[in-house]
């Protein structure tokens, strides 16, 4: 968020210094910072870590030759279904949706995202020795998501319930988000075997 805000501020200032004319309009921002804190439970495929803040997904052992069949870019290994169950406390009543956007180069806890593949920014880069491969994340319609696009997100309905009393309401929201992940071949060169780990931070927003 701070990077986006800084970029917007610089753009506005540059436009203002280039002209002595009166302003023709303005942009008014409204919003709210809420105290929601979400944890994750793996409904299918995954193990929660860091008190439910990180979901560990094992993509298993995939043969390099199976990814290199035909030598073409984009060959996909066996996909792993990921059912993310969000449990969000402290959400205001009236919210309807939760949105998950990807931050592949940001840090969460002690780790930093592994970034995106240089020649295919849709894919998450891997570390550990394997080359010629990235990790693809797919939505519920099996469409490959562009992790390098900051506007890419998946959304789900947020079910908000009062877990307090009528006199002292306390709201909690739950949501399910379905994804799939798989190794995807990058470039024309054969895949070189090795460890292929990835780390993909994300950000949640609500409306």
Word description of this protein:
- The chain is mainly beta and 207 residues long.
- It has a single domain, classed as Fimbrial-type adhesion domain (Immunoglobulin-like), CATH 2.60.40.
- 10% of the residues lie in helices and 37% in strands.
- The chain is built from 2 helices and 14 strands.
- The strands form 5 sheets. Strands 1, 4, 10, 12 and 13 form a 5-stranded antiparallel sheet that branches.
- A hairpin with a 2-residue loop joins strand 6 and strand 7.
- The longest helix has 16 residues.
- It is elongated and about 65 Å long.
- The N terminus is likely disordered.
Short description:
The chain is mainly β and 207 residues long. It contains 2 helices and 14 strands; from the N terminus they run αβββαβββββββββββ. The chain has a single domain (36-206), classed as Immunoglobulin-like (Sandwich), CATH 2.60.40.1090.
CATH topology: Immunoglobulin-like
Low-confidence stretches: 1-20
Within CATH, the superfamily carries the name Fimbrial-type adhesion domain
Mean of residue pLDDT? Answer: 77
* Largest beta-sheet characterization: 5 strands, antiparallel
Structural class: mainly beta
Q: Treating each run of at least 4 consecutive H or I residues as one helix, how many helices?
A: 2
Distance between the termini: 17 Å
Taken from the alpha-carbon principal axes, the silhouette is: elongated
- What is the helical fraction, as a range of percent? under 10%
SSE pattern: HEEEHEEEEEEEEEEE
Compute the number of strand runs: 14
Going by CATH, the architecture would be Sandwich
**Total tally of structural domains:** 1
What would CATH call the class? Mainly Beta
Radius of gyration: 21 Å
- How much of the sequence lies in strands comes to 35-45%
